[in-house]
Design goal:
Dna Ligase, domain 1, D-amino Acid Aminotransferase, Chain A, domain 1, 30 helices, 892 residues, 6-stranded antiparallel beta sheet
Length: 892
């Protein structure tokens, strides 16, 4: 088999324009550039010049387009039509496109251009040859933006007049609605673009398709992927047909995988133009390419990849046993090659024991490199400081928080001296720490943290030296860890055991048949997450009194609303927008610091308010339950239950009930407020790090500001110092992409709750007590911890982070790896909660009980076994989640 030899018509550059720019150029002419022939044309010239099988033809340059526009004085009219075009309102794009299309359709072709096209067309081989007329924009087929499908191509064109008309229609397609919107979305100046046209001999293809010289799904650079269908390639490019898919080893040409599709449509030539017709029955399920043809095509693709020095997206055609290359452009958004997920969990110390408990519960995912170095160091410093306060200094040389496959673990490997220090400290130091637990957090740790935040907030981030941005971010993490360790040595250490103690006493010594569960006595108190929800509800009620504001909030996407909140220009026709903006910003100022994750790579609500906007819109629409009514119901049930117990109990049992209930109520109420305060400095820390990231982007070190989180602390420190001294910063974009790929691979596995498996820490079976269960269930029922009573059946919504919160709909069952205070707004929408991580004393269980919805936590595998859209039943009493089989029916 052979390829089509490149043929070039005898086209000379026709000098017609006033500035001596040619209107016509040979396909591989020396003057062909992005500016003269557009992205597609420049690429075809490069391919043809390298001897690749490109069909012969010629370019109609951007000078001809500009001559046409100038001759008909179209530019002022084009810009006027674009004035009302808003990418957020598709109808305005369509209106602008139609107005500009009419301008081009009604404008006469200048005779000098028409004659130049006719002369070049006449030089092609044959009488009235059949050609393809393809648009080629100056902003097209670039390494970062493909602009694929934005302009028009016309196939099976023949005759001088038809070619000239097709050229004019191509020029008009520079202003289709999708092209206008695409340029606006990517900040491409409309006034700076122009369109060239490529006219080529049409390959009467029996088969055609697309070749990717890297696997666009997995990112593997050693594999090529072929899409192939019968007929011309437009059916494949336009998505009208499901093509055959072949995965091929690039080195040897071996077909690694083949999926032969049922190809129902094909694009064929007519007397004029093309049409989609049914594929003959005998060919519908027949493979388009055999293995030898696939190997030959991939070898051609490898040549093109070597020519460009990067993975390529290639349109090809097969006619009479020969391949032709119709187009080649860089693959955009090619993922980094997937790496294998870890299967081994090597211990930092062979005799150590490690568990996913304590502060690690706020780090559910693999750590990003910056937090894994800079942040985890702060965790170790704070935890070591706490241990030294209890057991004495000089005893804790080893890191307590470590990484295993980039997951955070807490490890303790105690010597006899350290054991003795803990015992003595428990007897002498801890009682005092417990007595002063609340004032240590409220009157010492929080004011110290807030003073640190206030100090840095007085500084202008734009004027701050780069090294100080890192110092400030580290201090914010130090403050957060300081809050947590203060809570850990008091409020958290007391609230859980006291709640468990009261629950055990009540269940065993007080509760009778028909009595409410122990949790009833602990619910209905205000906490920071509940106060935040009530404030959001109040804001929604305020909005409902303002019709134009309500209408805009309900119709605009949350992402658009978030962008409008940052703008100083109110949306057209929306009254009271500035006041809404002020009120919502004030809400974010007070409640926007809640954490999704202690790793500062995760945005806070202050950074990305979309989830709060979705909850607010739910309340504006009149959906959901009033948090005031819900809380009042909890208070009434609590007081009724308490009065009933006080009237029934006598003597020692009454005294114990009063004492244990008082302790549990006091410390449980403090726990959520304490956890909420951990994130106070995180919005500022993220602004500092993103400012450093923006500077590194300008220096060419990374590709986007958020890539700063994927640098190791020493790299970030060195880069900041280089910026400060005006020195070059090394490019780290490639390393960042590899680290992200590794992170994704690690994210696909479930970290063991304890290492080595079944290990005991201080004689305690941590796996049974910890927040993660070893989930190996393979049936239809997942076991977990029943953390909030009740039973609900509904549609599952699996969410992996705040970027997906907008997918949640009222009444769905929230399924997540873990929930932290920032997830609270979603509880107002959910009919039940299921998590991989958590237990009866974790945040998710407490808030679920406040909302009166069933919760099963600590399943270990829910986010892997359950998919969004599945119907599941959550039984908070039994601690089970049942996956409904097709045809099953469950009641709520």
């Amino acid at each position: 088999m052979s390829t089509i030899a490149p043929t070039q018509p005898a086209v000379k550059s026709v000098q017609e324009s006033a500035d001596d720019d040619p209107y016509m150029l040979p396909l591989a002419g020396a003057q062909v550039t992005l500016a003269t022939a557009g992205g597609k044309g420049a690429s075809l010239a490069r391919l043809a010049g390298a001897g690749l099988p490109v069909p012969g033809g010629f370019h109609i340059t951007t000078a001809a387009y500009r001559r046409f526009v100038a001759a008909n004085d179209l530019q002022p009219c084009i810009l006027a039509a674009l004035q009302s075009a808003d990418p957020a309102q598709p109808a305005t794009l369509e209106a602008a496109a139609q107005a500009i299309h009419d301008l081009f359709a009604n404008a006469p072709m200048p005779p000098d251009i028409a004659n130049a096209v006719a002369q070049a067309y006449a030089a092609l081989p044959g009488e009235a040859p059949v050609v393809a007329v393809r648009s080629s924009a100056t902003a097209e087929d670039l390494p970062d933006l493909s602009f694929a499908g934005q302009q028009e191509t016309f196939l099976n064109v023949h005759g001088r007049d038809e070619v000239v008309a097709a050229v004019q229609r191509c020029w008009a397609s520079l202003w289709t609605a999708r092209a206008i919107g695409y340029r606006a979305q990517h900040a491409i100046d409309h006034g700076a673009v122009a369109l060239a046209v490529v006219v080529q001999t049409l390959v009467n293809a029996g088969a055609a398709g697309i070749l990717f010289t890297a696997n666009p799904v997995t990112g593997a650079r050693d594999q090529a992927l072929i899409n192939a269908a019968w007929g011309l390639g437009e059916a494949v490019v336009g998505g009208l047909v499901t093509p055959d898919t072949l995965t091929v080893d690039k080195a040897g040409g071996r077909v690694l995988a083949r999926e032969t599709a049922d190809k129902q449509l094909m694009t064929v030539r007519l007397d004029l133009g093309t049409a989609e017709q049914p594929v003959p029955e005998a060919r519908r399920r027949a493979p388009v390419l055999d293995d030898a043809q696939a190997a030959e095509l991939v070898a051609l693709g490898v040549r093109i990849e070597q020519l460009y020095g990067m993975p390529m997206d290639i349109e090809w055609a097969l006619a009479e046993g020969r391949f032709a290359v119709l187009q080649a452009r860089p693959i955009t958004a090619l993922p980094e090659p997937e790496v294998p997920s870890p299967t081994e969990w090597p211990l930092p110390h062979p005799k150590g024991s490690y568990s996913r408990t304590n502060i690690v519960e706020l780090l559910p995912d693999p750590l990003t490199p910056l937090f894994g170095t800079l942040g985890l160091e702060a965790v170790n410093t704070g935890t070591r400081r706490l241990f030294e306060a209890i057991a004495g200094s000089g005893l804790w040389a080893d890191d307590i928080a470590v990484k295993i496959n980039d997951y955070a673990y807490m490890g303790l490997r105690l010597t006899g001296r350290q054991w003795w220090g803990i015992i003595v400290g428990a007897l002498t130091i801890l009682p005092g720490l417990f007595r002063r637990a609340a004032p240590r957090w409220r009157d010492e740790a929080c004011p110290r943290y807030r003073a640190m935040i206030d100090h840095w907030q007085t500084r202008s981030l734009e004027d701050m030296p780069a090294p100080e941005l890192l110092i400030g971010a580290r201090e914010m993490v130090d403050g957060a860890v300081g809050i947590f360790t203060t809570l850990q040595s008091g409020i958290l250490s007391l609230s859980g055991p006291l709640e468990a103690l009261f629950t055990a006493f009540y269940d065993r010594r007080v509760k009778r048949a028909g009595d409410p569960p122990a949790a009833t006595f602990l619910l209905g108190y205000d906490s920071a997450p509940i106060l935040g929800e009530k404030a959001l509800y109040d804001l929604a009620l305020w909005c409902r009194e303002r019709p134009s504001l309500t209408e805009h909030l309900m119709q605009a996407p949350a992402r658009q609303l978030a962008a409008e909140l940052e703008s100083n220009q109110p949306p057209a026709g929306v009254q009271d927008w500035q006041e809404w903006q002020r009120r919502f910003r004030a809400h974010l100022q007070q409640y926007g610091h809640a954490l999704y994750d202690l790793d500062f790579c995760k945005p806070t609500p202050a950074d990305e308010p979309g989830p709060l906007l979705e909850t607010c819109r739910m309340y504006v629409a009149g959906q959901g339950t009033s948090p005031y009514e819900r809380q009042q119901g909890l208070v009434e049930r609590r007081e009724q239950a308490t009065q009933a117990m006080l009237a029934r109990l006598k003597g020692l049992r009454l005294r114990l009930f009063r004492k244990l209930l008082g302790w549990a109520q006091r410390w449980v109420a403090l726990r959520e407020d304490g956890l909420d305060s951990v994130g106070l400095g995180y919005p500022l820390a993220r602004r500092m790090l993103r400012e450093l990231g923006r500077r590194l982007v300008r220096a060419g070190a990374i590709e986007c500001a958020d890539d700063v989180y994927w640098l190791y602390a020493p790299e970030a420190i060195d880069a900041a110092a280089a910026l400060e001294h005006g020195e070059p910063v090394p490019a780290m974009a490639g390393d960042v992409r590899k680290r992200k790929a590794l992170w994704r691979a690690e994210k696909r596995v479930t970290p063991p709750p304890v290492l080595p498996p079944k290990a005991r820490m201080m004689g305690i079976d941590v796996e049974k007590m910890g927040p993660v269960r070893t989930g190996t269930e393979s049936g239809d029922t997942l076991a977990g911890v029943g953390a909030s009573a009740g039973r609900a059946t509904g549609i599952a919504r699996v969410l992996h982070g705040p970027e997906e919160f907008g997918q949640m709909r009222p009444g769905e069952i929230l399924v997540a790896a873990v929930t932290t205070p920032a997830w609270t707004p979603l509880f107002a929408m959910a009919s039940a909660i299921v998590t991989d991580v958590g237990g009866p004393l974790s945040h998710g269980s407490i808030v679920a009980r406040e909302y009166g919805i069933p919760a099963v936590l600590g399943t270990g595998v829910a986010t892997r076994r359950i998919h969004s859209g599945d119907t599941i039943t959550v039984d908070g009493d039994a601690g089970t989640v049942t996956l409904q089989k097709a045809g099953d029916s469950h009641g709520v």
